[in-house]
Amino acid sequence: MDVQPEPVQQPAEAGGALDRRAELSEFLRTRRARLKPEDVGLPDFGRHRRVPGLRREELAQLAGVSVAYYTRLEQGNGRNVSAEVLDSIARALRLTDAEHAHLTHLAKPKQHKKKPTARTQQVRGALRQLLDGMEGIPAYITGRRTDILAWNRMAAAVFGDWSELPAQERNWARLVFLRPDYRELFVDWDQKATDIVSYLRMDAGCHPDDPRLSALVGELSVKSGDFRRLWATHDVKEKSHGTKHLRHPLVGNLTLSFESFNLIDDIEQNLITYHAEPGSPSAEALRLLASWGADATRVPQA
Question: What does each C-alpha distance from 209 to 17, 58, 190, 212 come to in angstroms?
Fold first, then answer.
């Protein structure tokens, strides 16, 4: 039997709100679709399956809930679902910690006061001083929606002088998906793009009523086929640590390790720092960028 295509979820209209029920439905469906019976110790009695991945009845069996109950949940009706049931479903779907948190946000949303999602985030003066004092270390602070809130001279030397951009353009999602020079900057652009969309998905789960986030998703969905494709996967991820390979226009290839730190007084702000292995060519390249000062900027846009 042929596999039936799933309906395509439409992005939120600019300025509107993301549909939490649709988000819950699509998230559960895509997590179920990525599992095969053999992945979870179930027998596969047929080569031809109407849908990819586990069937609903198989997932319900693994989670210890009725098929009708799970079906209602996957249709977006998370009302009155218990934390214990969500835990069981998360285990059955083999969710990561980030995915488990995202499922909980979608199924059991916290009550937010009106307006806080639309406020402009502010960076404390002491944090700006900290950034300025981190000589030789590219560092910046991001906020909601992958907005870039503050940065130091070395971050500008490596990633570009964001002060030359309008405030609304200082956003990682816009830079990665709409700027060709950033596609050139990241050697593994696909991974960077995937990470950015995963961060936005986490944000959307927490704040589906944020009009600025919905507008950003709507705009990127219209302007970037890559964004539309990645947004439809419903993958989620929290900022952590790792390595980035860059292709800098002035000093060539850079291999930098990064660390991400949640700020204790505003968990929606992150301090991200980059460093090179001591004695490596990348460390020497950073030293050169630091010595060039204001001249160490990205190639001007065409």
Answer: 5, 33, 28, 9
Backbone φ and ψ for 174, nearest 5 degrees, come out as: -65, -45
Structure token digits, residue 90 = 């998360």
Q: Which of 223, 221, 219, 222 is nearest to 211 (CA)?
A: 219
Rounded Cα distance between 241 and 7, Å, is 35
What is the three-class DSSP state of 42?
coil
Q: How far apart are CA 233 and CA 113, in angstroms?
A: 30
> Quick count: other Cβ atoms within 10 Å of Cβ 270?
20
With left for phi above 0 and alpha for psi between -120 and 50, is residue 67 left, alpha or beta? alpha
Neighbours of 16 (CB within 10 A): 14
Q: How far apart are CA 116 and CA 229, in angstroms?
A: 30
DSSP secondary structure letter of residue 43: -
Mean pLDDT by 10 residues, the chain (302 residues): 37 62 93 85 65 86 92 87 93 94 87 55 92 94 96 95 93 97 96 96 90 94 97 92 95 96 89 97 95 60 38
- With a CB cutoff of 8 Å and minimum separation 6, the contacts of 148 are 140, 141, 142, 162, 170, 171, 172
Sign for the CA dihedral angle at 288, 290, 293, 295 comes to: positive
Cβ(207)–Cβ(112) below 8 Å? yes
Under a CB-based contact definition with an 8 Å cutoff, are residues 13 and 214 in contact? Answer: yes
The owner of tokens 């439409």 is: 10
DSSP 298: P
pTM score, two decimals? Answer: 0.84
DSSP reduced 3-state for 165 = coil
